[in-house]
Predict the 3D structure of the following.
Amino acid sequence: MKAIRAVLNYFHNGGVKYIFGIPAGSVNAFFDELYDLPEITPIVTKHEGAASYMAASYAKYSQSLSVCIGCSGPGGTNLVTGAANAMREHLPVLFITGAVPVNTVGLNASQELNAQPVFEPVTKFSATVNRSDELMDIVEEAVNIAMSGVPGPVHVAIPIDIQLEMVDEIIKIPEFPVMKKVVPQQESVVKTAQKLLQHQDGIIFVGQGAGQAVAEVIELAELLNMSIICSPQAKGLMEDSHPLFKGVFGFAGHDKASEIVNESQGDTLLVVGSSLGETATNNWNVNLTKNREVIQIDFDSTVFNRKYQVNIPLVGDCKLTLRAIIEEVKKHINDQHVYFKKEEFFELEHHLEEFNSQNVLVALQKCLPESTRYTIDIGEFMSYVIHYMKVKEPHTFDINVHFGAMGTGIGTAIGSKLAEPERDVVCITGDGCFFMHGMEILTAKEYELPILFVVMNNARLGMVYHGHNLQYQRSHSRFEQKAVSIAAVAESMGISSACVQRMEDLTPELILRLQSEKGPSVLEIQLVDQNIPPMGDRVKFLSSFGK
């Protein structure tokens, strides 16, 4: 059999269901073998960059290895941003790139590129296969590295001639690895529990890494009456209705969360699954840890003591670590406090009839099931989502604010839907992001994925526009453009769409009609909102340079 078939058999044995990418000369042998392996479906996208975002999202929500492929040269370089994104989010994605035949290296072959050093800074492992007899070993090593310790992306470049070489039919296919959770040291667990019991007053700061530990966060907070805040990236984990949850801290965050941090409420800070980066900490606000005992839980030991001094670092899986701490705490505290749900005052405080971003997003959410997952792209609308949209159930928002690649939300929606087909998925994106990766709505159509793509169309780069006006008191005219009908673009591809130009147009009936489609649909919101988005602290931070 061909050498590349052995690799595909390995993927099949490991439960890989999808491979994201685009066929091309240097990877055609790979795709050709899929004809005879129907258990693996190729998700053929319109751009390799979008394929990389889909693969990352699929890895996140399937809790398994994802595979993404691009041809040599430009196909590979198009994957680099997605690899950097997966690295930042600790997602196990195997990026495979084709390569020119071994005997043509250095001869200016078509699409020749040494991709190994290109991927090295944005992956845990990057290698080039030079002989067919080492192909399986290198792929196995890459997959093991991707799924061990702190998960992350890896890269393997495979020359086309090596893919096609014949190997022994009875070649041994190695066992597929299983991701193992990092178990915390009991000594650190006991020390943490004692410290928390000693103070019984503090803050739990939830980051994206706490995704599988939501129940444990709430249980510990209730045991010790600790306030809960979260990073923008973690919005969607904690339900807004819980009385101990005080909102988002960081980019586009909430006043109550900032008040707790800045006014020194609580003498203990328990950080769960956050690396305490710029957007999570409101530009590294010194008040976050000021006069507080800092305890940080993470499976990545490199996050400790980066910007903030940590008193007790705990290396371990967030869920396992919190469960162990809870058991220690329960040796001394047996009763849970009783809390009552918060009342929502939003409608009393705002005029919902005004056609603006805030009201559109609030109205949209009211038309959709509470379990809907919103994949949020990058733009001024993102700050409104973080600040105003409600979290009704856990795991309902995907906001990639820390790496911030425009267009990620579109690919993320597709990867999420493939990983969890029964969950409603709505992508909220903007016209700027749509012009980058919007053609992937055609990919969603081709695979009959019922995703609602909401496009906030203000005919400008909105965050750039507002940011420049706030920072420099002017904005270049080229940040804006003549409006394009995105609904018409969708219709031209045979995708159901609608265009909203006033609040009265946005109705439950309209959303129901769009969601009843067998495949994707597009809801265009034609709105130029001159209100300043809730991102002022970000602008203040940028404005501090050069002074």
In short: Residues 345-349 have pLDDT under 50 and may be disordered. Residues 48-62 form the longest helix (15 residues). Residues 131 and 162 are 6 Å apart (CA to CA).
